[in-house]
Amino acid sequence: MNTLFLISMPGGGEMFFILLAVLLLFGGKKIPELMRGLGKGIREFNSAKASIKDEIETGMKESEEEPKKKITE
């Protein structure tokens, strides 16, 4: 039997039980704080990802311009 079929995304019933467990563990008052922290973390990750992408693109542009300058000199 292929074990890959045993690993899959949770369906509707499983998601309900996961959400119920989170509600019981953290309570109704802690969930908004948890979501705010999660959103802040995602925003920081996306901004770091964008800055790294910009640095890489800038470096690639500079390395492409460098040989052109040597040819014209």
Descriptive overview:
With 73 residues, the chain is mostly helical. It has a domain at 28-73. It is 84% helix and 0% strand. The chain has one helix and no strands. It has one helix at residues 12-72. The longest helix is centred in the middle third of the chain and has 61 residues, at 12-72. The mean pLDDT is 83.
Topology diagram in text:
Elements: H1 12-72
Q: From the alpha-carbon coordinates, what is the Rg to the nearest angstrom?
A: 24 Å
Average pLDDT metric: 83
* Main sheet overview: none
The overall strand count is 0
Quaternary form: single chain
Shape: elongated
Short description:
The chain is built from 1 helix and no strands.
